Each structure stands twice: as structure tokens, then as C-alpha cells.
Amino acid sequence: MQQKLGEQQDWLHMVDNIGNFLAPSMAKDHPNLPVVKAEGCYYYGADGKRYLDFTSGIAVENVGHRHPKVVQAIKDSADHLIHGPSGVIIYESILKLAAELQTILPPKLDNFFFANSGTEAIEGALKLAKYTSRRPYIVSFTGCFHGRSMGALSVTTSKSKYRKHLQPTWLSYQLPYALPEYLPEGADPDVFFPEKLEQDAKKLFNHQVDPEEVACMIIEPILGEGGYIIPPKAWLKKVREICDRHGILLIFDEVQTGFGRTGNWFAAQTFDVKPDIMAIAKGIAAGLPLSATVASKELMDQWPLGTHGTTFGGNPIACSAALASLEVLKEEKLLENATAMGAYAVERLLEMKLQHPTINYVRGVGLMIGIELGNPETGEPDGEAVMAVLDGCLHKGVLFYLCGNSGEVIRMIPPLTITKEQIDDGLTVLDEALTEFENKTN
Asked: pTM score, two decimals?
């Protein structure tokens, strides 16, 4: 025991000097909490405290941390195969996963290129669209986050700092997302935003890029890192309509919205809009690196050997974990739980909003919930308030995360296994942290 204590002190000393080991871009995120274990909806800190996790590893641990079925699947897979460069060899788990995914994705999204991360899935989607359309340009939407590699970065506009000094050059243009701040007072969002999109697209195509040269439009069906904005269904349908009109492929970035997060398997089903290509990741494999670019067989067949490749994509252990995770999502009815618990959490948060002038907006679909904080007098988004409240919650044993252009939104994305009691515990702490912050600033 004494040796274990000494070992723990050694690595905690390394945490105190983390900049000597890890790049700041990796090591300086919030809150840098030292943990020794995770289980269910909880992290267990090196300080001996238990922390209720409302981040699920940034929308990854949809079935909860270390679900026993997932852990067992990983162990069983490791007994047989650890690495499998797909194509050089082929193995059961990757084929079974593809077959299982066919049953939960929208119709004809039935062919897969497996990779390791959301960014890789986006890169694959962009390459597939460009290669098969023979068109050079991409249109993305302002505020969306698609990743930080150079292709993905060329369509990422949630924060300008991600693009600083990098000059991404993938020939992309942007259209405005359906942000609440654009909506005139009293206007119907289901009418205003589709009309605005039609006008914005017309200007783009008349003045900057001919639509016949646009390979694809790429969009987050719900704005993620950019602020948890939920657009009107009619607006997304207008995006689909514009793409159809001009023969443009539509890509949905469902890296964060997939695998039950919105109360459906994917946001495409939540909004009843079917893309031509999807990028899926995060919740797919319960914490193991796995992602996929998804399209129809007809489209994928135009992407021959050598035009794209991977060494580690579709790792056999990750595929086994994904199969176990899908089984858990179904058996434990976690999509239904996401719908019910998400509605309950939003209801409680709207009640809290009446008591806290710091809360500007509460937005949510399923268990993808954003709480925007702002200055009570001006309404201006307040990222400093968010950081203070997050720290207050952490001190009381609850872990939230942030998003938004200036970090003004608290993300509430717990595992889909979350219970009503755990939501009450977490939101009680959030209520207390907001009260303490408001008392200090008044």
C-alpha cells in the first residue's frame, strides 16, 4: 500500500508540472482533474472524491464509463486480436459492426470507411464528396466545428483561433447558421430562417461560387462546440432542398449528435432529413478510438482502392467495444431514457432560469443540453461567468464542460444511463454554484 501511495504521489507531482510533459494545447483544458477510475456516471479523483460526470468524456461515454458488457467485449477481443490493418486482413468484428450499423442508420447509408476519430471521419467525407463529384468547392456553415486537421479546419468556423496562422486552403465558403440572434422579434423561426438561407445561398452562388462547382455542403445538424444551437427542422430541410436543386452532396457531421444523444440514433432521424454522407464517431465505441465515414454503396463504389486508406481504422478491439455498446443502448432502452431525462433536465433548468438572471437561454434535445450565461443587465454572453460556475460545480463534485464562441455556454451531456436522482444531484449543485456566483457579483 505504501508503494502504491508513493506511486500516486509521483504521478500527481507530474500533474503539478504537466507543462514539462504535455503540449499546452493538450494539457491545459478545463478542469485538468486528476482521476484514478471511472464507472457509470462518475469519475473517482486522486483526491479521494467522487465526481458526477455531466460531460461523458465530451459526448463519448453514452453507455456510461466502463460498462461491464463493453469491458468484457474488450477483454475477449484482446484474447484473439489486437491490431488488424483492414484490407490486409479481415476479421469478424468489423463486418458485424458494419451490418449492425446498417440497421440503425437512415436508409441507404449502408457502406463504411472506418477510422479512429471524428476529424478523420470528416476528412473522409470531404474527400469522398470531392472525388465522386469531381467538383472543387465546399460550403460549410459559420459556427460549426468539424475538427482541427487541415481539411476539417477549412470548414471549421466555431472559433477563429483554431484557424490562426494556419491558412486552411480547401477552397471553402461559408453560409450563416440559424442562430437565435438573427431572428427578428416576433418572427416565426420556421419561416424566417429558411427564407434567409434561400437569400444567403443565392448571394453566395451569384457572387462567389457557381453551385455547379460545389461538391458538398457540410453541417452539424445541431451546433456543438459552437454553442449547442438547435436549428428549426424547416431550415435543415431547406439545406437539403438547396443541395438537391444543384446536385450538391449533403454531409451531416454527427460526431457529437450520434448514438442516442438526441433521443434518436442520429439527429438525421430527429429532424427527418437524410444526408448523402455522414461522419460518425464519439459515442460509437464507449471510449475507444473509432469513427466512420458513411455513405451509400453506390457512392462508395466510386471511391476505389488507394484513394483513401488507414492503418489503425476499424481496430478489432474498438469494433468489438462498439458492438457491445450498441447492444447496451438497445437492451437498456437508453434512447428512450435520453428523451425522458433530457426533457426532465430542461424543465428543471427552465425553472432555475426564473431564479437566476445570469441564465440567458436553455437549449436542449435529448441529453444534449446547453445553458447560456450572460450579463444580467446587457444580456451579453459571459464566458467568465461560465468558468466561475464550472469551478464552483467542480468544487462540489460535479463536472460540466463549456462551449460557444466565447465559452458562454455550459454543456450538459451526461451518459445516457443517467437517472432522475443523478440529474437532481447535478442540477442542485449547479443551482448552488450560480447562486454563489451571483451573490459575489451583485
From this structure: 0.95
